[in-house]
Amino acid sequence: MSGNGRAPGGFWRDNSLTLAFGTAFLAALVGQAFAGHAEFNEQFAVDGLQQIGFGEYLMSSDFAVDVTEDWQSEFLQFFLFIFGTVWLVQRGSPESKEVHKIGTESDREQRMGEHAEEDSPRWAGTKDGRQKVHSRSLGLLMGGFFVLSWLAQSITGVAAYDEQQLRQLQAPVGWGTHLVTPDFWSRTLQNWQSELLAVAAMVILSVYLRQRGSPESKPVGTPHASTGVEG
Asked: Which of 190, 157, 193 lies closest to 176, judged by CA?
């Protein structure tokens, strides 16, 4: 045992979910970069243009727009789900809170203000703007990430679009014009619809299906109508 009472290797165990998904993210990003570079040069070869190096591709708008358009759809998914589940429920789903708890709930239920406990976050026990910020910080941060990644996608998207226009001997367009092009909204909406479908499927399927040991599922023997119960 270490001095803090944790077993050796406790850090890796206690943070294994974040570490595993973070590592998988980096591996997938590297794989995307290599595959994207190969695809990009294949298209250049078809067009009779000079191929570019891997480092140059990583700095290109084509790679940046492919990455940021995926990021913004993911952050949008979580932003909508976090705020939506305050007021919207699904009876029987562990992804929903109990039906009678619709809304922001009382300070007692949320352990805020005078109901904060000794180990509660410091700002939870305040009664000023800090409490308001802390009580909505997760949704606000996800919303901020979405706006920033959407903005990055729109900027890198117009750069990639204009490069393609120039290769085809057509006039480039400005940022504002690109925002209303079918190209921009096709790339954007194809990501949004897939993320929203995944959330809807998870919410309703978790009413009737189980995954033993997962907190995203109800305990195996829990009735279908039980809501907000995690395994």
From this structure: 157
